[in-house]
UniProtKB/TrEMBL annotation:
It comes from the Bacteria. This is Chemotaxis protein methyltransferase. InterPro entries: Bact_Chemotaxis_MeTrfase (IPR050903), Chemotaxis_MeTrfase_CheR (IPR026024), CheR_C (IPR022642), CheR_MeTrfase (IPR000780), CheR_N (IPR022641), CheR_N_sf (IPR036804), SAM-dependent_MTases_sf (IPR029063). GO terms for molecular function: protein-glutamate O-methyltransferase activity. PANTHER family: CHEMOTAXIS PROTEIN METHYLTRANSFERASE. Residues 14-289 form the CheR-type methyltransferase domain. Its EC number is 2.1.1.80. It comes from Ferrimonas aestuarii. SMART domains: MeTrc.
Length: 289
């Protein structure tokens, strides 16, 4: 029997799909997901789109992508655009991912905030299944224990476009394997081990969870904030946007940051023409000018 690697497994799913995706329909998908979410899909993503959206066609008992387009454009299923976006978004994350960002939070930002005692607001703007904002909260909890006091009020807003990943984040239950590379102190500081039927799972501690508020948000829609942020995380999401969308988003982040506020991007993301608005602190950490 032929071995199925993750790569050829995905290829077989697409091959077996009974729903052909024409170039015309793929162009419609590209335009629609760009208009709705700012996500830019290249031609090489066509097979991925075919496989993921075919699941929606099966779920809705449709036979063609043209029927699916007509359904989306009608008022019959108003929630289907949410499912459409959920199907096409990619959510890859882990606890303490790119750890130098959390070291900076612990060693530089938290001492500054605790010295001033003013309220602090943090935005995890593409939080996926919650590992990033919960890691931020765990770092805060550990720092409070280290210095022996609660310090200023700190609130973490965690947002994502995908409602399904937000459901996972709010549940705060993860597979045991997802924390297998964390150290003993990190595990003790942030998680509870499952028992019985949940022996292969972990749950984020309540003290950590209480620091985080989750909310569905499209980064390319209108933001209705009434305050600015001390720190914004936007890691590994701008790579899915085209250049103009990236620049607009960076300009909006700049307006949403407090004076000397901090913006943290993913390891492969840059400021482009917005370099004049920020001062680089190294390792994709930037301070508002």
């Amino acid at each position: 029997m032929r071995s199925l690697t993750s790569k050829n497994y995905e290829a077989e799913l697409v091959t077996l799909s009974p729903y052909p995706l024409s170039d015309e329909m793929f162009l419609w998908v590209q335009k629609t997901i760009y208009d709705k979410a700012g996500i830019s899909l290249s031609q090489k993503k066509k097979q991925m789109v075919q496989g993921r959206l075919s699941r929606r066609l099966r779920c809705l008992n449709l036979q063609t992508f043209e029927q699916y387009r007509d359904l989306l454009c009608s008022a019959q299923y108003p929630d289907e655009f949410t499912e459409f976006i959920n199907a096409l978004t990619t959510n890859k994350t882990s606890f303490y991912r790119e750890p130098h960002h959390f070291h900076y939070l612990q060693q530089r930002l938290l001492p500054q905030w605790f010295a001033s005692s003013r309220p602090v607001t943090i935005w995890s703007s593409a939080c996926s299944t919650g590992q990033e904002p919960y890691t931020i909260a765990m770092v805060i909890k550990a720092y409070r224990q280290q210095i022996g006091r609660k310090g200023p009020e700190i609130r973490i807003l965690a947002t994502d476009l995908d409602t399904q990943v937000l459901d996972t984040a709010q549940t705060a239950v993860y597979e045991l394997d997802s924390v297998s590379e964390l150290g003993c102190n990190q595990l003790k500081n942030g998680f509870l081990r499952g028992i019985g039927d949940n022996h292969n799972k972990v749950r984020v501690q309540d003290e950590v969870r209480r620091l985080v508020q989750f909310q569905q948000m499209n980064l390319n829609s209108l933001w209705k904030f009434t305050h600015q942020f001390d720190l914004i995380f936007c890691r590994n999401v701008m790579i899915y946007f085209d250049g103009p969308t990236q620049q607009r988003l960076l300009q909006r982040f700049h307006k949403q940051l407090k004076n000397d506020g901090t913006l943290i991007l993913g390891h492969s993301e840059t400021l482009g023409q917005c370099e004049i608005d920020y001062r680089s602190l190294g390792k994709t950490i930037f301070c508002k000018r």
